[in-house]
Design a protein that fits this description.
Blueprint lengths: L1 H33 L3 H5 L12 H12 L14 H11 L4 H23 L5 H9 L2 H8 L4 H16 L3 H15 L6 H11 L9 H24 L12 H12 L10 H7 L2 H16 L2 H7 L4 H15 L5 H11 L3 H5 L6 H24 L5 H34 L12
Helix pairs in contact: 1-5, 1-6, 3-4, 5-6, 5-8, 8-9, 8-10, 9-10, 9-11, 10-11, 10-16, 16-17, 16-20, 19-20
Length: 422
């Protein structure tokens, strides 16, 4: 009789702590956005936003719409019609600017709460607390990057998959895919999560798989039709390419915008001869796909960890990454921190020094190049190479920690012993 009371007491205490964190986190976020004025200085930072997540671009799209100019005629509006219409609705409330700030604060708080609900019973307050009070997350929020909404949708999709809600999980994944395309790579891993946690397993072996994939494809089609309507192009023939496809998705595939960011693509394609551009563009895009099957196969026992690892790789290798992508990966790692990662990383000191080095010299090198004019593009690209190395190294080290934990579970005598990979 003692054990159930203990579990219930832990559950109540965790709920109470998370409730307090929600209140504190929400108030901190609203005050940060509404009173500090940090957004004005962070909205244009290349570390925090790109053309596809920039709040400044979103406001430009809204301004064009209010002036009755088709926003998707040129190449300025790179935001999905869903994000544009959400901003227009919020901006036309009693106090539009406050409504936008509150919406951003609520979205980020929801992400922290859902992350906590994904964790084990005793780790929920720890996971939510770290996310709610993370300085990196608060800086990202202050930039008002639309990646805040993308991260919320991805986390909710993962949490619903963990709880076996196939239709709703695929709905949120389809919505995230509609906004930024690359969450589609998470589909195999999340389908495996759903198959593992299905509430009503199908009579066939692949029943939950067929159900999830069908729901995802169907909802992608519905969202596409709704996006056409919101963009004012619902009357076009079904085979006609809407304007928002040319400005939202096509640049992600063909990488038109070579504005500097923290990724690896922009400098490479600036220096690329046009004769070879198509070939390397295909190589770079296909490179993102090659990790999906191996990770899903090797991490089949923990498909949620496979999805998290894919997000870490996307933060390194997708064409327009920001610090928000890295922060999402770091936040999800908290789910395994106490049980798997802590004490099993081999290069934690080197990785910590690398992150600190990039945090200090990244903004400095960008300032020397763009503002002071005393450097060149090589300054900033060099630090982005270091940043990519550190992130890739972290993903590899965390994978090693997972493999080591799995080996220790299989062979308890190996606990504390060094593992040599051949």
């Amino acid at each position: 009789m003692v054990e159930p009371r203990t579990i219930e007491a832990v559950r109540q205490e965790s709920t109470f702590v998370i409730g307090g964190l929600v209140v504190v986190g929400l108030l901190v976020r609203i005050c940060l956005l509404w009173y500090t004025g940090l957004s004005n200085g962070l909205e244009g930072r290349v570390e925090l936003s790109t053309a596809f997540t920039s709040f400044l671009r979103l406001k430009e799209c809204a301004k064009l719409t209010l002036l009755q100019i088709e926003p998707y005629d040129g190449d300025i509006c790179t935001h999905h019609p869903f994000m544009l219409n959400l901003y227009l609705v919020l901006a036309h409330l009693v106090d539009g600017e406050l409504a936008v700030d509150v919406a951003y604060a609520v979205a980020d708080t929801v992400t922290g709460v859902v992350l906590g609900l994904m964790a084990d019973e005793g780790d929920r307050a720890f996971v939510s607390g770290i996310y709610m009070l993370s300085p990196v997350g608060l800086i990202i929020l202050a930039s008002k990057s639309t990646a805040v909404w993308h991260n919320m949708l991805v986390v909710i999709a993962m949490a619903l998959a963990v709880h076996g809600s196939s239709y709703m999980s695929m709905a949120f994944l389809a919505l995230a895919t509609s906004i930024s395309m690359y969450p589609a790579l998470l589909l195999p891993a999340l389908v495996m999560v759903l198959r593992k946690n299905a509430r009503r397993p199908g009579s066939l072996l692949f029943g939950p798989v067929i159900e999830a994939v069908s729901a995802y494809v169907m909802q992608l089609g519905l969202l596409y039709a709704q996006a056409r309507r919101l963009a004012g192009e619902g009357g076009l023939a079904w085979w006609a390419v809407p304007g928002f496809v040319r400005t939202v998705y096509e640049p992600l595939v063909l990488v038109y915008d070579l504005t500097p960011n923290v990724g690896l693509w922009w400098y490479f394609f600036v220096e690329m001869f046009d004769d070879f551009r198509a070939f390397f563009l295909g190589v770079f895009q296909l490179h993102l796909l090659i990790y999906v099957a191996p990770l899903c196969i090797r991490l089949a026992d923990d498909p949620l960890f496979a999805a998290t690892t894919l997000l870490g790789l996307l933060a390194v290798f997708k064409p327009y990454p920001t610090l928000a992508d890295t922060h999402l990966y770091w936040s999800l790692l908290l789910l395994w921190w106490r049980s798997t990662i802590r004490g099993r990383l081999r290069y934690s000191f080197i990785l910590g020094c690398g992150i600190a080095f990039c945090a200090l010299f990244g903004p400095a090198f960008y300032h020397l190049w763009i503002v002071a004019g005393t450097g060149n593009a090589n300054f900033f690209y060099a630090i982005t190479l270091v940043w990519a190395l550190v992130q890739g190294w972290l993903v590899a080290d965390v994978l090693f920690a997972w493999v080591k934990k799995a080996y220790e579970v299989e062979d308890p005598t190996a606990v504390g012993q060094e593992i040599i990979l051949e």
